[in-house]
Amino acid sequence: MKLLIVEDEPKTAGFLKKGLEENGFSADIATDGAIAGSLIRQGSYDLIILDAMLPGVDGWTLLKDMRLRRDQTPALFLTARDAVADRVHGLELGADDYLVKPFAFSELLARIRTILRRGPQRQAATLQVADLVIDVQRHRALRAGRLLDLTPKEFLLLALLARRAGDVITRTLIAEQVWDINFDSGANVVDVHMHRLRAKVDDPFPARLIHTVRGIGYVLEDRSGA
Fold this sequence. Notes:
The protein is of the alpha/beta class. The chain has two domains: 2-122, Rossmann fold, CATH 3.40.50; 126-220, Winged helix-like DNA-binding domain superfamily/Winged helix DNA-binding domain (Arc Repressor Mutant, subunit A). The protein is built from eight helices and twelve strands. The strands form three sheets. The protein has a five-stranded parallel beta sheet with strand order 2-1-3-4-5, sandwiched between helices. Helix 4 (84-93) links the parallel strand 4 (75-79) and strand 5. The termini are far apart.
């Protein structure tokens, strides 16, 4: 499979290219937004690894332009921009995942393989599970047609669960994705925020969609027909 690395720091770009090629991928490098835009239009890539801050055209604009052209090539942001608002913005633009620098290459590789297994059909701007509809671009979530009043972190947490609906997401992974922290899975920060999210997503409605998998984490799925 062929990947495009959009990264203006030469050592990081070289490290990524070497690591990916050692794991069976072919990889091109673009060091600025203009070069990346040209390669994306000319080439046929299976996935794009994208820095947010680039010379000239930034990563946000590159991805926005891709999605406006209906180019659904999978994209993963790999950037030092670690604010929750940045993560939400990246997902709203149509990114498939968001990993903050510094990072472990093994985790990056695992996320790349997960995205490639899912394929482009999972990259819709609207996510739906039962009567829960999430409009990623507009940062809106509705349940049974009712608008949910979510904080940015709650929306990011719900979007993470929805993008992997049916998959059990560990507390550790949730903490890394939403808060960019590593902690023992017994810590309750995720559970506290999940309780607040459930109060908005599940409690006012007959069927629960967010389920606890004891000792592991959470899963978003419709079990009403089970």
